[in-house]
């Protein structure tokens, strides 16, 4: 793996434009403003469902893989570890874990710290009611043995350095060599500039990336197998305001595989 | 159409058991209790999405119908009228309208009365932000001209007689002969006993029924084309408590076509 700067691909034509970190934050505020009227739990549910659907497509269960038409899929016995951060990215992970359980997977949630934040508290209750184990930490070895790992640690708001215990969790994820599906942003990456070989925590190379609402600038550095877009809830006024150029979702699909 | 009592089919074996009106109400309270921790906006989003997905399957858009594999589908130019009641059933309709708009349909919402209730107020803001017309009333003729109509007037809580203006709206829906997709319960039906020929408002015969969580007892009287189940969010503790016997959803599907 080379340094971040060598990843730049200015000449490649894509079906999407990236949404800057600043615009992503403002777009989020807009969605929850009285003008657009969305609620956090509501959009987190759609985002987490999209992540679960992308994982079900990328890592189909062995028992159901016969009916899967994707040639690039790799089958799964269903053991998935979801590593959650303290913010909304972690909330998306909690929702995804619940839907994956309903799809027949065997998820385990890593939630490192107690929280008083809503909707996280409710999402943890829901996950436990779904009989999903919730643990505080996870070893590199356990991550290695999982079929795949969902990285729901940091999202589009990430800046600076990860704090403990998330720094060590990121390093474990990277060293484990596990197949990682990152939610919105590969955790530890600079949201604009992408990975950084000079930093231990910033070297994650996910197998699958699920961008939410719109890909962030760092997504051009994604070198994994499948890049999905989810979060099919953007009203036209928002798309116009942020000049979003996104591919059209097919039919009633909640996710789309990007090129 | 004969009287309700002649509809009984005690001998037919089904893949599901019905949930009584009383149990449906208690199950709903349980989901939102601290034990299970769900939120109204969250589950309404999943329920409304399921309704939209069922409509997209039952009435595929002409432009996208090539890829639709269902032989019993009838294509649609996408003009759909969603008639909403004042409660949670109406809320499911508002969510469905928004998703259908995102799927490429041209929905129009009939919302007869101003409301101060959340989450309805926010859902109306979201629908308007999606540039969906919201009107207070609708004529029998307009209903007739729609490709299909979503009946989101009354749900599992309905008892007694419908009040104005919903009584007249139900009569218009019935007289229009429109293809109707009912959300959870065909509006005007007794939740347990089903339709009643002796009452003008209780004669609706929907083309499609989308049961949510579990079919209600009246669903055995459904004589339409397709009966779906949606609301794939029931934790095992709830399923056990109410002895739910439901078919397994395939893969990551949010709806299942019942037999």
Describe the structure.
2 copies of one chain form a homodimer. Chain A is an alpha/beta fold and 259 residues long. Chain A has helices at residues 21-31, 40-58, 88-102, 120-129, 140-145, 166-176, 236-241, and strands at 79-84, 106-110, 134-135, 148-152, 180-183, 208-212, 226-230, 255-257. Chain A has one domain: Rossmann fold (3-Layer(aba) Sandwich). Chain A contains 7 helices and 8 strands; from the N terminus they run ααβαβαβαβαβββαβ. An 8-stranded mixed beta sheet of chain A has the order 3-2-1-4-5-6-7-8. Mean pLDDT of chain A is 92; it is low at 1-11 and 64-72. At the A-B interface, α2, α3 and α4 of A face α2, α3 and α4 of B.
**pLDDT below 50 for ≥5 consecutive residues: which ranges of chain A?**
1-11, 64-72
- Could you tell me the mean pLDDT of chain A? 92
Q: How would you describe the shape of chain A?
A: globular
Number of domains of chain A: 1
Major β-sheet annotation of chain A: 8 strands, mixed
Derived from helix and strand composition plus strand pairing, the structural class of chain A reads alpha/beta
Strand content of chain A: 5-15%
Name the chain pair with the biggest interface and residue counts per chain.
A-B, 42 and 43 residues
For this entry, what is the oligomeric state of its chains? homodimer
CATH topology of chain A: Rossmann fold
First-residue to last-residue Cα separation of chain A = 22 Å
Strand order of the largest sheet of chain A: 3-2-1-4-5-6-7-8
CATH architecture of chain A: 3-Layer(aba) Sandwich
Q: Quickly name the level 1 CATH class of chain A.
A: Alpha Beta
